[in-house]
Design brief:
Layout: H1 2-25, H2 36-49, E1 68-71, E2 74-79, H3 87-91, E3 108-110, H4 124-127, E4 133-135, E5 142-144, E6 157-159, E7 164-167, E8 181-183, E9 188-191, E10 205-207, E11 212-216, E12 229-231, E13 236-239, E14 253-255, E15 260-264, E16 278-280, E17 285-288, E18 302-304, E19 309-313, E20 328-330, E21 335-339, E22 349-351, E23 356-359, E24 375-376, H5 385-394, H6 408-453, E25 484-485, H7 488-494, E26 503-507, E27 510-516, E28 522-529, H8 537-547, E29 556-560, E30 566-572, H9 579-588, H10 599-619, E31 624-625, E32 634-636, E33 642-644, E34 651-652, H11 657-666, H12 684-700, H13 711-720, H14 729-732, H15 744-760, H16 771-779, H17 781-790, H18 792-795, H19 804-810, H20 812-815, H21 822-831, H22 857-866, H23 872-877
Parallel strand pairs: 2-3, 3-4, 4-6, 5-7, 6-8, 7-9, 8-10, 9-11, 10-12, 11-13, 12-14, 13-15, 14-16, 15-17, 16-18, 17-19, 18-20, 19-21, 20-22, 21-23, 23-24, 25-29
Antiparallel strand pairs: 1-2, 26-27, 27-28, 28-30, 29-30, 31-34, 32-33
The chain binds 2-acetamido-2-deoxy-beta-D-glucopyranose (10 copies).
Main location: membrane
Biased composition (Gly residues): 842-854
Domain Protein kinase: 498-783
Length: 882
């Protein structure tokens, strides 16, 4: 019927429109609907939905109808939002939109607030392929969501809120990769959030509020870096808030109130506080504190944490004072306590009722603030005193009872009681503390004695040292300031699920994988399996990067601590690997000497490593000991600049003088030179020894020496060191790496490095030079050998200590004690090093005390008390072989 009539009136329409468009509208000609099929489809829609002639007049071209948009004569957008139906249509409204099926270029369909009682047809997913926006809000739709909707991959906005939809969210929805706005709120959906939702990387708004959804909040949501609005409120979600949500770097609105959520919120939950606008956590069972950044989030307008078990004190304001009147704060019904603070200045509406705040009400708190049911002074409707007192007593916090007490007698009674309680508590704590102290002392003594007992030929220690490598308790490390937090998923992606192909090596502190971050940055990821590695190894390293920052250490990018048994540390990738592999490469191609690490590079590497260690030993306070100095710890960037790695062993030197004295008191005779076994000792001299082996490795090309302390390596050292003599340059050629091409000038440098190495390898830790002298020596290698040679005749006499080797072999006598306390010596050494001013004057060394020997009798006496006076000639001429 429709077809017949329309074909009869068409010619008339045609001429009318020709006139209309050409004469009156001209350029809008292309608006005219050109597809017969679509023409028919629209008329079918018009009758099936009962649309009125007012909006869609029968005698007008459909492209001019209200809410119809055409392009090139085809319908691309339909908006019937808020339309009213004809009387007939109102009587029996249906979800009958079959006409849509032939509008194949339709990009947008908006029927919000238009009654469509019925189910979404399955064919939507097969026919409306071009659809980008589907808005069916408040249409009284029921039934479940068709699985086929997942086919509409062009969709960017899907709005189905305020209907009666039931069933679960089909997993096919996760195919909608272009989806930015996803609103299923206010329905009767059940089940849990499909995990694959984490792949909808363009999602900006996800609204699932007011449904019957359950299960936990998937950690994978944290992958949605573009997500600004997340609303999961009024459901039955349970469990805790996953720390991965930290990945939501664009988060503006987080609404998860009125669920069954529990646990505490990770303090670093909000990685980008500057974007925050709305946080609603109300009516859950959260405990713990509120992430501190919310108080300083500049754009926060609405914060509702009411109806939980949150606790903690109000911080003071860190924002500027321009009170933002429209800000809302609701903390009611929690366990907050302490005094009201200036942070309340930032809010124009404040509800603190039902907490345990105490003290007076400052005048910056807004007049209409709700403060009922607290422990505040001079205010009505507060908790009774005993509630308040027992609350504060349970938490060991001070409660200042209001001074004008309503009932003085009862008041005194309770305060006396609490006084007594305080005294008892103090006594008990004091006693426990004393016992703990004694226990610690005992353990210390036992550890020392045991180390004394089993000495091995590691031969590098200074004697017993209490194991002090354990990191500070996790709580004192502020992870957020130490690199970025990566999600496990990010790391999985970066390393192709930690595939074997990406494994670099199984290091002693963890497995190293290469990978590429999403941003394209190549990284190395250390996987630390806490079941096989010393507990908290990762914390040691985090602690290190929190303390030390210097270009000589491997750039640390971040960490991932979310898994219980596996922790991950992420570093920048070093293109040239480590020194051991560079030397190995060289040795593999021995015939091709061009590829061998040339001497200039080797010297540069030695210098770089010395710089890093010197920083640790002399610029950190207290001094830090690396404890894993070896070729494989010396990483090399693209320019062969040294970046020290392998920092999981580091610890602070036993710099405490008292402790050293205790250590020395306990030291048995003859044992001081034997060294400790087991864990490397925590003294800088240990690093120096290991560095000596690295230097020797550079000189000789002998692989693996620095990595090993076994008998074979020791034997090799014992055989090699005698070839290093300050008096005989030619002798060193017998041990120099045969693949090194060195002329006579360079040989002098090689010789110098060997001499430095030998001084580092002194079996007596106390006679090894401090790192800063080693650095000076490597900076001026020729001075090491030339000036020494010119004065070599005098070396055999005791007055020779004024020459360079006083710094390397001699000045330790005055400085070895001092190196423990950098403040005494480090600055003075800068200007007048023993090397620069070497010669007969002998005025160098550690500042006032002089390193020369002659001028430092008092210091030497002090030294001798602790270490036996060495015979320097012997030391230089042959290594101790005890
Ligand atoms: C949709 O149509 C309604 C009613 O005509 C109108 O108020 C509204 O602005 C339209 N919306 C859009 C996005 O075109
Ligand atoms: C869509 O067009 C086809 C012809 O191509 C027609 O057979 C069918 O009835 C039309 N469907 C609707 C709902 O108009
Ligand atoms: C649909 O129309 C309503 C009413 O005009 C409007 O508020 C809404 O923004 C439209 N939906 C979309 C996705 O544009
Ligand atoms: C997306 O829309 C375009 C036309 O707008 C269409 O050609 C294409 O097939 C659609 N993609 C899918 C996956 O349907
Ligand atoms: C759409 O989804 C259905 C499942 O609902 C599937 O069978 C079909 O192959 C998909 N593709 C198209 C183009 O309809
Ligand atoms: C998603 O959108 C981009 C442009 O924003 C488009 O190039 C791409 O084809 C879309 N993907 C699909 C599956 O439609
Ligand atoms: C989510 O939807 C509900 C109801 O449909 C609405 O009140 C709420 O404002 C929406 N949330 C966000 C963040 O837009
Ligand atoms: C707070 O903790 C108490 C005691 O554990 C519990 O009884 C109460 O239900 C909790 N309140 C909320 C809102 O979770
Ligand atoms: C604060 O939250 C509580 C409980 O969620 C509610 O009863 C109260 O009305 C809220 N206060 C304000 C000022 O909105
Ligand atoms: C806030 O500042 C006041 C006064 O400076 C101080 O007494 C109070 O302890 C501070 N509160 C906190 C939580 O730091």
């Amino acid at each position: 019927m429709v077809d017949q009539r329309s074909s009869r009136v068409l010619p008339f329409f045609f001429f009318f429109f020709l006139f209309y468009f050409f004469v009156l509208l001209g350029p809008t000609f292309e608006q005219q609907l050109s597809s017969q099929l679509e023409f028919r489809a629209l008329f079918e829609l018009r009758s099936s939905l009962g649309l009125r002639g007012k909006e869609w007049p029968r005698k007008t071209d459909p492209c001019l109808w209200n809410g119809v948009v055409c392009e090139d004569g085809r319908v691309v957008s339909l908006n019937i939002s808020g339309f009213r139906r004809t009387r007939l249509g109102r009587q029996n409204p249906q979800f009958s939109v079959n006409g849509l099926a032939n509008l194949t270029l339709l990009r947008s369909f908006n029927a919000s607030n238009f009654l469509l009682p019925g189910t979404i047809p399955e064919w939507f997913g097969h026919r409306l392929n071009s659809l980008r926006v589907l808005d069916l809000r408040s249409c009284s739709i029921y039934g479940s969501l068709p699985y086929s909707l997942g086919n509409l991959t062009n969709l960017t906005g899907l709005y189905l809120s305020r209907n009666n939809l039931s069933g679960s969210i089909p997993s096919s929805f996760t195919n909608l990769k272009n989806l930015s706005f996803f609103d299923l709120s206010s329905n009767f959906l059940s089940g849990s959030i499909p995990l694959e939702i984490g792949t909808l990387s363009r999602l900006q708004a996800l609204n699932l509020s007011s449904n019957n959804l359950s299960g936990s909040i998937p950690a994978i949501l944290g992958d949605l870096g573009a997500l600004a609005d997340l609303d999961l409120s009024f459901n039955s979600f349970s469990g805790s808030v996953p720390p991965e949500l930290r990945g939501l770097r664009s988060l503006k609105k987080l609404l998860i109130g009125n669920n069954l959520l529990s646990g505490s919120l990770p303090d670093n939950l909000f990685s980008n506080p500057s974007s925050l606008e709305t946080i609603v956590l109300n009516r859950n069972s959260f405990n713990g504190g509120i992430p501190s950044v919310v108080w300083s989030a500049p754009g926060l307008r609405f914060l509702d944490v009411s109806g939980n078990n949150f606790t903690g004190q109000l911080p003071n304001s860190s924002l500027s004072d321009n009170a933002t009147v429209d800000r809302v704060l609701n903390m009611s019904g929690n366990l907050f306590y302490g005094g009201l603070s200036t942070v309340l200045r930032q809010f124009g509406s404040v509800d603190l009722s039902g907490n345990y705040f105490q003290g007076g009400v400052p005048d910056y708190v807004v007049v209409n603030a709700s403060l009922d049911s607290n422990c505040l002074q001079n205010l009505r409707n507060q908790r009774n005193l005993s509630d308040c007192e027992s609350f504060y007593a349970e938490r060991g916090q001070n409660f200042d009872a209001p001074s004008p007490a309503p009932s003085p007698a009862a008041e005194r009674e309770t305060s006396k009681k609490s006084n007594r309680r305080t005294i008892i508590l103090a006594a008990v704590l004091g006693g426990v503390g004393l016992i703990l102290l004694l226990a610690i002392l005992l353990v210390l003594v036992l550890v020392c004695l045991r180390k004394r007992g089993d000495t091995t030929q590691r031969g590098v220690g200074v004697g017993p040292v209490p194991g002090s490598s354990s990191p500070p308790p996790a709580a004192t490390i502020n992870y957020s300031s130490v690199g970025d937090a990566f999600t496990y998923l990010q790391l999985l992606q970066a390393t192709s699920d930690f595939s074997d192909a990406n494994l670099i090596k199984n290091g002693h502190s963890g497995d190293l994988f290469r990978g590429v971050l999403e941003s394209g940055i190549p990284v190395v990821i250390k996987r630390i399996d806490l079941r096989s590695v010393k507990k908290e190894a990762h914390l040691v390293e985090l602690d290190f990067f929190g303390k030390a920052s210097h270009t000589r250490f491997v750039p640390f990018l971040g960490h991932c601590l979310e898994n219980d048994n596996e922790k991950f540390l992420v570093y920048k990738y070093m293109p040239n690997g480590d020194l051991s592999s560079s030397l190995y490469k060289k040795n593999n191609t021995e015939d091709d000497s061009l590829q061998s690490l040339d001497w200039i590079t080797r010297l540069k590497i030695a210098l770089g490593a010395a710089e890093g260690l010197s920083y640790l030993h002399h610029e950190c306070n207290p001094p830090l000991v690396h404890r894993d100095v070896q070729a494989s710890s010396i990483l090399l960037d693209d320019k062969f600049e040294v970046r020290l790695g392998s920092l999981s062993e580091f610890c602070t030197q036993e710099g405490d003088i008292h402790q050293s004295k205790i250590t020395r008191l306990l030291r048995l005779p003859q044992s001081s030179e034997q060294g400790a076994s087991g864990t490397p000792t925590a003294v800088c001299a240990y690093d120096v020894y290991c560095f000596g082996k690295v230097l020797l490795e550079l000189v000789t090309g002998k692989l693996g020496i620095s990595a090993s302390s076994d008998a074979q390596a020791k034997e090799w050292l014992d055989q090699t060191v005698p070839y290093i003599s300050i008096y005989d340059k030619e002798l060193v050629t017998k041990i120099v790496d045969p693949s090194l091409i060195v002329d006579d000038d360079l040989l002098e440098e090689v010789w110098a490095m060997a001499v430095v190495a030998r001084s580092c390898l002194n079996p007596k830790p106390s006679r090894r030079p401090p790192m800063r002298y080693i650095l000076k020596a490597l900076e001026n290698p020729l001075k090491v050998v030339r000036e020494e040679n010119s004065g070599s005749a005098r070396l055999r006499t005791t007055s020779s200590r004024g020459s360079w080797n006083a710094a390397l072999f001699g000045s330790w006598r005055s400085s070895s004690d001092i190196t423990v306390i950098p403040a005494v010596s480090s600055t003075k050494v800068e200007g007048g090093s023993g090397l620069k001013h070497s010669g007969t004057t002998g005025s160098q060394g550690s500042g006032q005390n002089g390193g020369g020997g002659e001028h430092s009798s008092s210091y030497r006496r002090h030294s001798r008390e602790i270490f036996p006076e060495p015979s320097s000639v012997q030391d230089v001429e042959r290594p101790d072989q005890d």
